[in-house]
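quick q for whoever's on today - can somebody do inverse folding on this one?? i tried earlier but teh output was garbage lol. tokens:
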């Protein structure tokens, strides 16, 4: 039983690493985009807030 759980967790690890790396790259891209094109980031944030109904 324990071995089966270990094998199951081992399969999920690459996906978790891939997802974490993708999230980190997305955050870095947003930081650099906000530095080089602040008007675009402002427009994206405003659009996101409007779609969520916060504005």
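ok took a stab at it. sequence:
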């Amino acid at each position: 039983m324990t071995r089966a759980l270990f094998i199951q967790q081992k399969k999920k690890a690459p996906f978790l690493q891939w997802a974490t790396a993708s999230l980190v790259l997305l955050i870095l891209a947003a930081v650099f985009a906000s530095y080089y094109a602040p008007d675009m980031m402002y427009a994206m944030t405003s659009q996101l807030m409007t779609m969520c109904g916060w504005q």
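fwiw The mean pLDDT is 80. also Residues 18 and 27 are 14 Å apart (CA to CA). so keep that in mind when u check it
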